[in-house]
Specification:
- The protein has one domain.
- With about 280 residues, the chain is an alpha/beta fold.
- The protein has a 6-stranded mixed beta sheet.
- The protein is built from 9 helices and 6 strands, in the order ααβββαβββαααααα.
- The mean pLDDT is about 85.
């Protein structure tokens, strides 16, 4: 068997945002968010994750999966494989926009319900933190008392998740393993097949059940990601090279400044690699 790479937004939407996804999305969110007992999600509605801008000039909002829970809270889920500039602000923008969009003009603020933004990142966002999962809320900085629980940002950094199949202790770990590794597997591991919802997710992600158009869409998404990653790596390499060159030039200029009182321009230029025009400008 071959499975979709769930780390692509196409596959993530296919698995968690399709018509048949509701039961497994409930299981997935309860496991990832650690909702148990009275806090467990018992029902939800999967809705169109696209939001048109309500304010002229603001950007459209795209998330991969959006669901309204039985308690009226909204969960927006995004899978991000590229570490693009401003991504952390986009997550906050999406959450704030979803929160504000609940009210029509003139309605009371008391009608606002909580919004949870759950983000899977296939890169390191918070290098100072060791844990795979991190949660952010509005807090008072001295006492850490909550100002409000109405907007919560939750991040799962997949590169930090390094557990093997033998080390998966609970349904939380198993779901993260599925998201990170499904595209690399050619069979359903025993540790995962015993979980009914994860087994169902593998069934949706099985390429054998996809149409030709869906397979082509997935491959196009892979090609786009490969091109973008190449561009990002090249930009990073070029920036590093430029920085090294600028550093070398600055060092040469510093040496030249120290030689101005003892050597002529031509000699300093030969010893530092600078031009005589640069030496003249230093004088």
């Amino acid at each position: 068997m071959r499975f979709l790479d769930v780390k692509t937004d196409f596959a993530f939407k296919k698995v968690f945002g399709s018509e048949r996804s509701k039961p497994l999305l409930i299981n997935f969110l309860n496991a990832i968010l650690d909702y148990t007992g009275e806090y467990a999600i018992t029902d939800l509605t999967i809705i169109d994750p696209y939001q048109a801008p309500t304010i002229k000039g603001m950007k459209d909002t795209f998330v991969d999966v959006k669901a309204v829970l039985a308690n009226a809270s909204t969960v927006i889920i995004e899978m991000q494989v590229l570490n693009v500039e401003g991504f952390e602000k986009r997550v906050l923008y999406n959450a704030a926009k979803t929160y504000a969009a609940q009210l029509d003009k003139g309605e009371q603020y008391t009608l606002l319900n909580p919004v949870i933004a759950l983000t899977f990142a296939d890169f390191i966002m918070f290098p100072e933190q060791r844990d795979t999962l991190s949660r952010y809320k509005l807090l008072e900085t001295q006492t850490l008392v909550h100002y409000s629980d109405d907007i919560e940002l939750i991040f799962i950094e997949l590169p930090k998740f390094t557990l093997s199949l033998d080390d998966l202790n609970n349904i939380h770990d198993k779901w993260i393993y599925f998201v990170k590794n499904a595209g690399k597997l050619d069979y359903i591991p025993d540790a995962l097949i015993v979980e009914a919802s994860i087994n169902e997710a593998f069934g949706i992600a099985n390429e054998a059940g996809l149409t030709k158009a869906e397979l082509e869409a997935q491959e196009k998404r892979h090609d786009f990601i490969r091109l973008q990653r190449g561009s990002i790596e090249k930009a990073s390499h070029d920036g590093l090279l430029k920085g090294r060159m600028e550093g070398a030039t600055e060092k040469a200029l510093e040496i030249a400044r120290n030689l101005l009182d003892v050597l002529d321009n031509a000699t300093i230029a030969r010893k530092t690699g600078l031009t005589e025009a640069q030496i003249k400008a230093l004088r």
